[in-house]
Amino acid sequence: MSALAKIRETFRRDQVFDFVNKQDYSRVDTSHGQILYVEDVSVSFDGFKAINELNFYIEVGELRCMIGPNGAGKTTMMDIITGKTRPDQGSVWFGQNINLLKMTEPEIAQAGVGRKFQKPTVFEHHDIFENLEMAMAGNKGVWSTFRARLSSEQHDRIASVMEIIGLSDCAKQRAGALSHGQKQWLEIGMLLMQNPKLLLVDEPVAGMTHQEMDKTGELLTSLAGEHSVVVVEHDMDFVRSIAKKVSVLHQGSILAEGSMDEVQNNQRVIEVYLGE
Amino acid sequence: MFYMLKGDRGGQALLLLLSIAVVLIPVLNLVVPEGHALHVSTFTVTLLGKYLAFALLAVAVDLVWGYMGILSLGHGAFFALGGYAMGMYLMLQIGDRGVYGNPDLPDFMVFLNWEEVPWFWQGFDSFWFAMIMVALVPGLLAFVFGALAFRSRVTGVYLSIMTQALTYALMLAFFRNEMGFGGNNGLTDFKDILGFSLQSDSTRVALFIASAVALALGYLACRAIVVSRLGKVVVAIRDTEDRVRFIGYRVDHIKLAIFTFSAVLAGIAGALYVPQVGIINPGEFSPLRSIELVVWVAIGGRATLYGAVLGAFIVNYSKTYLTGAAPEVWLFALGALFVLVTLYLPNGLAGLSKKKEAAV
Ligand SMILES: Nc1ncnc2c1ncn2[C@@H]1O[C@H](COP(=O)(O)OP(=O)(O)OP(=O)(O)O)[C@@H](O)[C@H]1O
Ligand SMILES: [Mg+2]
User: Fold this and answer.
1) Is the shortest distance between the CB of A54 and ligand 1 below 6 Å?
2) Mutate which of A41, A76, A116 for ligand 1 pocket (most atoms within 8 A of beta carbon)
3) Cβ pair B260, B142 in contact under 8 A
């Protein structure tokens, strides 16, 4: 290499300053078929190991159910993936190219990981339309958000999501006034607006009637394929109705993985659940 | 053009009143002769101008507290810094008309036996430079303070205490003569602004108009933020900060932008206040002053903007009245008013009229 070329290489605009050389979150590389790699992750709270050398992978377009007794670490696992909790060890990659452990919560969300919380959290003082509008994918910088105006396509998109979550009739209703089940759906709707590649859904049917559960099940299965979905749920009937592959979490690590039938006949799983 | 006032009855009323006042008050002061029943004295004009500056300050506090949920107990500091920047300009306009007659040095520097004005006074003899500093100095301080605090996610009571500490530290610093801001006495004895005498009626009227225009523009700017998507996100941050992060917003950036903007508004308010009252001293940095601002907003009604204006006017009018009639009861009266409003009108006075409107 000539001296000039060397200098050019050293001073390449995209490499001189680290902050100029930002990770490109818009393109997650899933050429190996996996969208999420969780490897050897541990975290402890005051000496208590909530997650213990956890390993699992999520395939592109997969719908994965995670079950496990109370305190197994299911919510903590989601906290780690979404950047809320930093693990003591291990690695979490989104596709092959995005290291989630180096990113902040908003960066992870922008990269395409959406999350529904166990306790439904919506913006109670805003109406349904506004909740969805704020969640909508797009440039979320300060100035762009200030200048944002709804285009007619975006308007239609919000309307169609309201349709999907069955809240079309109450666009102007304050989210705080919704029933528990409706809040769950609104939160799922906010997830959809973000258009994430990976959805983490924590206990989506808590507080829902059977009918509502069926609709939620349909919605989640229809999302799989285009999106990858991880559902944590206690309700076994619900899990049975939607699951292809189930992982059982126990004391912070995967105890068993397989179809619902395989898992239910697994001796160790039976012990854990009966031993409760 | 005024899309931001859509649905904001209080704001529409405010803008209407301001437009009327800007025409009427000058006429009643300058045209209607003294002694006539309709004459408005220059004293009153200046008093109103001072209230307008306070109202702008209250709007700035409401933006960060009412909408974003950050209880800043240090906004008096930004106000005072804007005031000092204006005061420095006014000091340098005095020239050789000071007590010591030194054309280059303000009186207090002559008194301290200084040879020349310190470096940080350079440039303040230019009005435009000083006006830039009015916005820049409070803005920069808010930016640095906010960047540190918001990045490390200091919130709630801890943040409020930090803002109190900030203004307290500045007060102690400005009290010191070596700081070069006139110490205890602050900056005073101003003569003129842009060549116009500060004693003349027309200058007083002009300052009143400038304050009214600044309040109107500041109000519209805050409304523009509040009705935008950014404003919705700001309220969402107040309600559930975590959730906002998980839908992809940089909460620290948003807080920083709003906090800094609010500090700039407070600085402008301070710059309008100083030529009208004729003095700025370190007392403006006192923690109690900043707490008082918050009380104005609480009494007027949070998260409405016009409520802040209302609160600033009512409290300051009562203060003017009471400190004349019975100075020793003022603090008790303020305390009682605050307690009564918090107990019986949790949404402040603005809450009286806006029962039905969807509260933000
Ligand atoms: N921030 C924290 N500090 C201390 N302990 C925590 C924290 N977060 C979680 N834990 C503990 O870690 C364990 C796992 O909690 P986690 O919420 O992940 O369980 P889970 O599987 O979601 O349970 P559930 O089905 O009840 O929602 C629990 O024992 C919990 O008390
Ligand atoms: Mg949980």
Assistant:
1) no
2) A76
3) yes
The secondary element (H helix, E strand) that includes residue A216 is: helix A210-223
CA A234 to ligand 1: nearest atom: 25
Tell me if A165 sits within 8 A of A185, measured CB to CB: yes
Instruction: Please give the distance, rounded to the nearest whole angstrom, from the Cα atom of residue A51 to the centre of ligand 1.
Output: 9
Buried b (16+ CB within 10 A) or exposed e, A177-192: ebeebbbbbbbbbbbb
Question: Would you call B122 exposed, middle or buried from its count of C-beta atoms within 10 A (0-12, 13-18, 19+)?
Answer: exposed
pLDDT tens-digit profile of A80-136?
999 999 999 999 999 999 999 999 999 999 999 999 999 989 999 999 999 999 999
Flag whether A229 is in a domain: yes
Residues of chain B positioned with their CB less than 8 A from the CB of A142 = 230, 250, 253-254, 257
**pTM (two decimals):** 0.92
The number of distinct structural domains making up chain A is 1
Burial of B149 (0-12, 13-18, 19+ CB in 10 A): buried
Query: Which of A106, A123, A127 is opposite residue B248, by nearest beta carbon?
Result: A106
pLDDT digits (tens, 9 = 90+) for B88-143: 999 999 999 999 989 889 999 999 999 999 999 999 999 999 999 999 999 999 99
Q: Which of A114, A134, A146 sits opposite B236 (nearest CB)?
A: A134
| Region of poorest pLDDT, from A16-20, A94-98, B21-25 | A16-20
Q: Sort out which chain A residues have CB atoms less than 8 A from B230's CB and list them.
A: 142, 145-146, 148
Residue A240 structural domain: 22-123+197-274
Does the C-beta of A250 come closer than 6 Å to ligand 1?
no
The CATH code of the domain that includes A93 is 3.40.50.300
- Residue A170 belongs to some domain of the structure: no
Instruction: Return d(Cα A257, Cα A262) in angstroms, integer.
Output: 8
